[in-house]
């Protein structure tokens, strides 16, 4: 409640109390008992407007409200001051950053200019060196070409002399070669004739030796043969023998039977007993392959 409401409250209460008193007096006057009772003297109370001073609580509240308003005002002013300070600091920071950026950009531009100047200087120096190298190379090439021309002329002259000498030597060598070729042909023909005669002799000797070895092998097989029971005689069997180069028997089988199983079997056993045939070791590889690697023998005990 504000101060104005407080000032009107008390007069209102007094007015209500006065009306209550007046009404009580009226009821007493009209009641039956009031006829015998002398009415009291009427007291006239004049209404007077009263003015009351504010209470201590209202003053305290007023002071508190004012203090709160002052505090809020101070806080608002402090907040405003801080915002202004912050804004000023941000502006100062932006200015410093802009200044720093400008300085950095200037440094980069200066460095770029220096690098460009150095590059141009290096290009110029390289170009000068290139021109100098080209001049030196040209001079060296001219000197080399002159020397080569002189050497070439000397070489041509020398080559002509060598060619003449070579032709003379080649002619002499050709004549010597023709003579040597004729002699070589004569020797070759003589050698071929001798080799042919020797081959014939060797063939005859090889055939004779092979025949002798084959006879010896057959004799050994016959000696190793054991006569089967009830052998009647007059039988013959053809056997296929396979030998190794050292004379060992690799395989033996019947290629044409005698008709008598026991006789055929005794012949196979005789071959196995007679092995190995060391006689074949005396022949060369070609003769062995041709004559003794695989051979067929006729076995007839009566021969």
What is the SS-derived class? mainly alpha
Query: How does the major sheet shape up?
Result: 3 strands, antiparallel
From the coordinates shown, what is the CATH architecture of the domain at 225-299?
A: 2-Layer Sandwich
Strand count: 3
For the CA atoms, what is the radius of gyration?
78 Å
Spans of at least 5 consecutive residues with low confidence: none
Estimate the global geometry from the Cα principal axes: elongated
Q: Using the coordinates shown, work out and report the CATH topology of the domain at 225-299.
A: Fusion Protein Consisting Of Minor Coat Protein, Glycine Rich Linker, Tola, And A His Tag, Chain: A, Domain 2
SSE string, helix = H, strand = E? HHEEHHE
Estimate the mean pLDDT confidence.
81
Span between N and C termini?
170 Å
**Count of runs of 4 or more consecutive helical residues:** 4
| CATH first level of the domain at 225-299 | Alpha Beta
Strand order across the biggest sheet?
2-1-3
Strand content: 5-15%
Helical residues, percent: over 70%
Annotation keywords:
mainly alpha, elongated, Fusion Protein Consisting Of Minor Coat Protein, Glycine Rich Linker, Tola, And A His Tag, Chain: A, Domain 2, 72% helix, 303 residues, 4 helices
Plain-language structure description:
This protein is mostly helical and 303 residues long. The chain has helices spanning 3-30, 56-224, 261-274, 285-291; strands at 237-243, 249-256, 294-299. Among the domains are: 3-53, no CATH class; 225-299, 2-Layer Sandwich (Fusion Protein Consisting Of Minor Coat Protein, Glycine Rich Linker, Tola, And A His Tag, Chain: A, Domain 2). α2 (56-224) crosses α3 (261-274). The protein starts with a helix and ends with a strand.
């Amino acid at each position: 409640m504000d101060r104005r409401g407080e000032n009107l409250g008390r007069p209102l209460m007094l007015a209500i109390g006065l009306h209550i008193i007046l009404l009580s007096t009226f009821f007493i006057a009209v009641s039956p008992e009031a006829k015998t009772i002398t009415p009291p003297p009427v007291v006239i109370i004049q209404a007077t407007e009263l003015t009351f001073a504010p209470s201590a609580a209202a003053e305290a509240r007023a002071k508190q409200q004012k203090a709160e308003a002052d505090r809020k005002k101070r806080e608002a002013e402090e907040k405003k001051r801080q915002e202004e300070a912050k804004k000023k600091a941000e502006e100062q920071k932006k200015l410093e950053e802009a200044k720093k950026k400008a300085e950095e950009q200037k440094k980069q531009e200066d460095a770029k200019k220096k690098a460009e100047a150095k590059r141009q200087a290096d290009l110029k120096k390289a170009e000068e060196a290139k021109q100098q190298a080209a001049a030196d190379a040209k001079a060296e090439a001219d000197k080399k070409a002159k020397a080569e021309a002189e050497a070439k002329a000397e070489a041509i002259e020398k080559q002509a002399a060598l060619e003449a000498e070579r032709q003379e030597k080649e002619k002499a060598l050709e004549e010597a070669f023709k003579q040597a070729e004729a002699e070589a042909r004569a020797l070759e023909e003589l050698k071929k004739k001798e080799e042919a005669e020797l081959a014939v002799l060797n063939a005859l000797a090889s055939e004779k030796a092979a025949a002798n070895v084959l006879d010896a092998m057959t004799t050994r097989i016959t000696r190793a043969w054991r006569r089967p029971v009830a052998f009647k005689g007059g039988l013959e069997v053809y056997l296929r023998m396979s030998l190794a180069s050292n004379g060992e028997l690799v395989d033996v089988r019947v290629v044409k039977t005698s008709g008598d199983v026991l006789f055929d079997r005794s012949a196979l056993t005789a071959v196995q007993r007679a092995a190995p045939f060391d006689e074949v070791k005396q022949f060369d590889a070609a003769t062995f392959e041709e004559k003794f690697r695989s051979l067929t023998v006729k076995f007839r005990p009566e021969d």
